[in-house]
Amino acid sequence: MYATKQPSLRIKQADLKCKNGCGYFGNADWEGYCSKCYRNHMDKERQRKSNQSQHGDHSKATSFSKFEEKKRQQSDKKTKYFLPVFRKPSSLKETGRPEKYIDIRQMNPDADKLLAEFISAYGEWGEAVRKDFLKCVHSFTSKIIHELDFKSADELADIAQNYYNSYNNRLNNNTVYQNVTPDVRDKLLDFFERYSMVGLYTFLFCPPSTNDEDKDLSIQDRIRKLSWVNAHHLDCCISETSIEVRDLVYTAINDLLGMDSMKAPQEKLACVVRCCRSVVEVLQHCQGGPVSADEFLPALIFIVLKANPARLKSNMLYVTRFCYGARLMQGEAGYYFTNLCCAVSFIENLTAESLNMAQQEFEAYMSGEVTCVSAWESALVACEGMHQLCEHLSLLKGLSERMSAVKDDTQKLKDDMRKLKEEINDEVTSVLERTPLVIKPRKTIFPLTMEFLKSLPPLPEKPPIPDKGKEVEINQDVDTAPKFYQQNITLTQMGLSDNKPKLQLDITPCVNLPSASVVKPSLSTDFLSVPSPAADKSIESITPDDNSYLGLSKINYDIDFSDISAENSIIEDLGESRRSPTMSFTPDPFSPMGTGCPIMQSPLVPSAAEMPRVEVPPVRKNDFVLPFLEEIEKEDTKKETLLDKVEETPTICLPPPIKPTEYTGFSKQGSRIPSIPCNTGDVSSLNLQQSAGSSKDTN
Amino acid sequence: MSSGASGGGGGGGAASGGGNSNHQRGAAQRPNGQTQNKICQFKLVLLGESAVGKSSLVLRFVKGQFHEYQESTIGAAFLTQTICLDDTTVKFEIWDTAGQERYHSLAPMYYRGAQAAIVVYDITNQDTFGRAKTWVKELQRQASPTIVIALAGNKQDLANKRMVEYEEAQAYADENGLLFMETSAKTAMNVSEIFLAIARKLPKNDQSGGGGGGAGGSSQGRRLAEGDSGSRGPAGACCK
Predict the structure, then answer these.
(1) B60-109 pLDDT, tens digit each
(2) pLDDT at B16 over 50
(3) pTM for the whole structure
(4) Chain A: residue whose CA lies nearest to B228
(5) A506 burial via Cβ count (<10 Å: 0-12, 13-18, 19+)
(6) Which residues, 6 or more positions from A98, have their beta carbon under 8 angstroms from its beta carbon?
(7) Cα–Cα distance between A272 and A252 in angstroms, integer?
(8) Chain A contacts of B23, Cβ < 8 Å?
């Protein structure tokens, strides 16, 4: 009896016999029958089917379920053509057919291309040839579509083959083709097949009446399970490590995969041929010399296993059914297609024996328990792995370099920060060291400053005397202030010397400047009223000088001590030169620069400068000073801003440093007051020179 | 090279270079061809255990006898060769098969529709002769009934290591109606002769049944595969 699907190493005669036991040999594709018995069997089947279909409902149900199944698995493109699967009454079909025929032309843009190709290629043979060709194609396609719903795929294939043969006969015998050369006749036959099959592809490829799709899935699954099979198992000498060989293998795989995208059977065949030629090339690379079937078939099996093409069985069956038979039996295409069939058949029936391995080992591989170290995969994996490894290593190296760089930088930054901190601390301490000496004793020396303050508004030194009452008040106020502004004071004091006259000079401008326009009139209305214009100018001019002083730092102070008059002149020059480009606020920026520690305050200078302006004008001098200090004392939260403001003023007032230490308290006051006026005074920078000159004169 | 031998054997058999296969197939298929020099195309299958020299035999036939062979694209697996026999041009299309035992069951696909087969064995290896016998049996049962089978004892140049006696093989061939020759692909002995003998034995009439002309053979082969023409008897497996 015919043993289906279990090819053992040796086929015994009994295995090959027909299932019916008639003595003839059977065949797997005839379900194990010999040809005669198979035909009888099929006839019976057909009869049974037709009986069923006459009964109606049953077949409808089955075909519908099948249709559903197909629909589930297949893409939607075919669904519209599945409708006929419902065995409709014939009357309906009559109407359905022409629609479908129209569809063929419309659904296939390829058909028009082919027609154009036909005209360009065979147009020279005349209109008659073309007409006859199209007539035959039309008759063929309409016949197939007509039969589509009634006949099985194999029967349709018979019809197609008959049409091919009859058209071949027509080519040879009909007078229309009398003048056509044999070569062209062959091509016309090919074209006939191609043209009609491209149109009918959607109907005939993997038709719903067959279980082609199941076969596709099963072979796909099978190949997937066999993914561990490698060239070594198949005794084929593909050297998987050679790049050249691998490229060729990929080419072969691609060719094989391309089969699915072709429509005409002969195009699919062409793909197979290309694939097989690539395989031959691979083998020639690997072993050299002529490639015999002994090497070729295993290699092809290997390729099929590695490619696992989509819809493999559907494609093969489609080609088998609808390709002109002669082409499958002969020629290179036929040979290679046969090899492909053999390869697939081998894969389907592959056993442990056929791979020369123990059953247990085979099963272990199949079940996935053991993963095979396939040279092919391992080579690929190794190459890719190595490649990735290298890439990752270099990446890591770069990252670590960057990391270390970042670390270094952070360390450096830390050091810098620490250094900065230390520097600042040192600076602060050093500053503190210098300052503390001066601060407290000076507070007591107010009277002097008071005098100065009084004298401030009117630059001329005489006026201060009458305002003594006011001075006292101011002094009291000032007492509190110094505590908060120790630093500022210190700064101001840095340059302070015992020279009272100088202090007077410096302070006066400072005080005057802020209050220049507004304060003076308010405070000493009677006295200042007259001289105010001139005095303002002079004061303004001086304040900037003081600021410049700050910038000059200690050196200036030294100079100040020695020569008051000279100092003023120098300061003026510097101040002017610096001021000229920038208008009112320039002095403020300079002051922080010069002071060093108070640098922090610099940014706030403008705001600070503005603030005093606003506040000062409305309030009298006394009022102004007091609230200002009070605010600072009370409002700890605002300390910073207030302090800054206050500090700025002192910084601006730094010029006073030249003043004697005793007067620091006043200087603070003065500084505040002056700072405000300074800004306002700056507005009129043109008068600086004059004022400077006046200040000198006063001194 | 050995055209002289072929001439002697075939009575005017002469060689002509391979041409356009399509053209020849077409011509062979067309019964209306009035040309005196008829073109017949035959499919010939090479069977036999691996390493018995199937491919070297056919390479000798195809390459040795005719100086030119377009090897660039095709290996030794599929070859065509054309020879002239009397007034007929015979084109052989030679299909090599994988000889390994594991592929044995696939053989029917190859010899389906073949008009001729050469079963090759190695005279220095008794086992290969045994395999050859099974091939012959299988062919007689499975293949087209009119198939022309030739038995070739290859590696005759190694006759001193002979394991299969000439007489034994000759007797077997006679029994089964086979053509038999001992050949040597290495020395080209009897290589073209055996092909010529096959060519002579093949029916040249296109209309003749069995494996006659290309057209008849092909279409019938096709139909056989479909299982529709039972009259032809059992044939090889369909490609599936």
Answers:
(1) 888 764 434 444 445 778 888 888 888 888 889 999 998 888 888 888 88
(2) no
(3) 0.54
(4) A39
(5) buried
(6) none
(7) 9
(8) 182-183, 186
